[in-house]
Design goal:
Protein name: Class I SAM-dependent methyltransferase
GO molecular function, one term: 2-polyprenyl-6-hydroxyphenol methylase activity
EC number: 2.1.1.222, 2.1.1.64
Distance between the termini: 44 Å
Pfam families: Methyltransf_25
Shape: globular
Strand order of the largest sheet: 3-2-1-4-5-9-8
Keywords: Methyltransferase, Transferase
Low-confidence stretches: 1-5, 213-217
Strand content: 25-35%
Oligomer: single chain
Helix content: 25-40%
CATH architecture: 3-Layer(aba) Sandwich
Mean pLDDT: 93
Structural class: alpha/beta
CATH topology: Rossmann fold
């Protein structure tokens, strides 16, 4: 159960958006390409953590269909309910990823698609360090964000009031490296969500490996 008095701003936004969020981003070729990158490199039956799992599509659905063991975590109970219904082969939990007790070194890969933007810069950095510890040696992390140099920016996202904090592209890659990850590849795109209130936005996709391991081929 979620205590309504402690519900985060992100939970309120995504409770309101529900399935509209999935529809708005369904045409993202860059997201599908990122998942293909990950699938190509994951051993069969890998354990994958999907942070900010939303409706479960496309991330959890794609990876579960490939035979991987997926745990999705999201602060929005509405999203978790939708994801559990749409992707029954994955496990979903409602909660703050920063507070869930998860064993270090227990995941082969972590997906972090657009889940940082409503956290402060310090919170984003702290979370990246924690996620790195959750990865096994050689573990992979796929990250996507909107690379803008903004802090506490108030705006409207698909009709919802939001307060956004992010880094520019160089700052994002620096944060990832400071967390102990090696950037293996990156892809910068412009994408317009399919929604009447959406605007074109820059997106940065990074594919990373926990440091101290062999380079990807």
């Amino acid at each position: 159960m979620v205590d309504e008095n402690r519900r985060s701003p992100a939970a309120a936004v995504f409770d309101a958006l529900g399935s509209d969020y999935e529809k708005a981003f369904a045409s993202s070729e860059a997201h599908r390409a990122s998942l293909a990158w990950l699938r190509k490199r994951l051993p069969p039956g890998s354990r994958v953590l999907d942070v900010g799992s939303g409706t479960g599509r496309p991330t959890a659905a794609t990876l579960a269909a490939a035979g991987h063991r997926v745990l999705g975590v999201d602060v929005s109970p509405v999203m978790v309910e939708i994801a559990s219904r749409q992707v029954p082969d994955a496990e979903f939990r409602c909660g703050d990823i920063r507070e869930l007790p998860l064993e270090e070194g227990s995941f082969d890969a972590i997906c972090l698609y657009f889940a940082l933007l409503q956290m402060s810069r310090a919170e984003q950095s702290d979370l990246l360090r924690r996620l790195t510890r959750l990865l096994r040696p050689d573990g992979l992390l796929a990250l996507a964000t909107v690379p803008l140099d903004v802090e506490g920016f108030h705006g409207v996202f698909m009709g919802q009031d939001v307060r956004i904090t992010s880094f520019d592209a160089q700052g994002v890659t620096g944060m990832v490296r400071d967390a102990g990850l090696t950037v293996l590849s990156e892809n910068s795109v412009m994408f317009t969500p399919t929604h009447p209130d959406a605007r074109p936005e820059p997106q940065l996709f990074l594919h990373c490996r926990r440091e101290g391991t062999a380079q990807a081929t």
